[in-house]
Amino acid sequence: MKLSEHTTSVLKNFASINQNLVIKEGKTISTMSAMKNIVAKAEVDEDFPREIAIYDLNEFLAALSLFSNPVLDFSENYVMITEEGKTGNSLKYFYSDPSVVTTPSSEITMPETEVKFSLDSSDLSKVQRAASVIGSPDLVLEKNGTGSYLTVKDKKNDTANNYSLDVDAEGSGEYNFFFKVENLKLLPTNYDVNVSSKNISHFKSQAGNAVEYWIALEPVSYTHLRAHETEADLVCRLLLE
After folding, report:
1. At what angle do helices 57-64 and 5-17 cross, to 10 degrees?
2. Are 180 and 35 in contact (CB under 8 A)?
3. Are 160 and 153 in contact (CB under 8 A)?
4. In angstroms, rounded to a whole number, what is the distance separating the alpha carbons of residues 24 and 48?
5. What is the model's pLDDT at position 202?
6. First and final CA of the chain: distance in angstroms?
7. Which residue pairs, CB below 8 angstroms and at least 24 apart, start in 75-84?
8. Radius of gyration (Cα) for the chain, nearest Å?
9. How far apart are CA 183 and CA 33, in angstroms?
């Protein structure tokens, strides 16, 4: 098996969410952050023949980079990586014990959403760059009397610099939904975004190869989490519903 450019990009992106990964048999790859406030899923071209647990995904990707055109052969306990056309050039990479790897146990059931909008890759890049330039940790999707905006700011400092971007959002009334910028670990593509007052958001790529992210919002958003419920509690509950 050879990994497509899309699959390699997905693996690199998922490594930024969690260095652990379990690839299930089939064509779907999913991951969950260690804090359990980000869940991601991607459909890929390859059909993986068995379950594969990888403890250090960055190490695995580095192993693949040793080859110009790596070919993967999945055995029961390890994957044999060889150079295409040169089987003598090989690396045996052993799987991890699945019990020590963090992975989503089931699908998330997204609750009813109050706000929907589209986010293209250029606007996503602008938001992420602005957060880096002005050193702001928060992103708020807000609507007031003049329109809807994505605003990069520090919610704990009213006098801190901020950057705003108009968005064409569908949703009635006024709202403020807060994200942590560090949680927006998204592949650079266009997304349809749904946001729920249950403090969960869903980003789904508009491209043919579907990539999806479920990202917990901050508790100071439009409505509050259930009593004493943390971001991690929220995602865990949605995984079970």
Report:
1. 150
2. no
3. yes
4. 7
5. 96
6. 36
7. 76/50, 79/52, 84/2
8. 20
9. 9
* Chain CA centroid to CA 222, Å: 22
Tokens, residue 87: 């089987």
Where does residue 26 fall: left (phi above 0), alpha (psi -120 to 50 degrees), or beta otherwise? left
What mean pLDDT value characterizes the chain?
A: 89
What span, in angstroms and rounded, lies between the C-alpha atoms of 2 and 82?
Answer: 10
pLDDT recorded at residue 236: 53
CA nearest neighbour of 207 among 2, 3, 6, 27: 6
DSSP 144-192: ETTEEEEEEE-TT-TTS--EEEE---B--S-EEEEEEGGG----SS-EE
What is the pTM (predicted TM-score) of this model? 0.87
Per-residue model confidence as pLDDT tens digits over 169-211: 988 788 899 999 999 999 999 999 999 988 999 999 998 778 9
The fraction of the chain above a pLDDT of 70, given in percent, is 91
pLDDT class for 219, splitting at 50, 70, 90? Answer: confident
DSSP letter assigned to residue 55: S
Cβ atoms within 10 Å, residue 221:
23
Q: Kind and range of the H or E element at 129? A: helix 121-134
- Residue 22 and residue 101 in contact, taking contact as beta carbons nearer than 8 Å: yes
Give which of 171, 155, 162 is closest to 220, Cα–Cα. Answer: 155
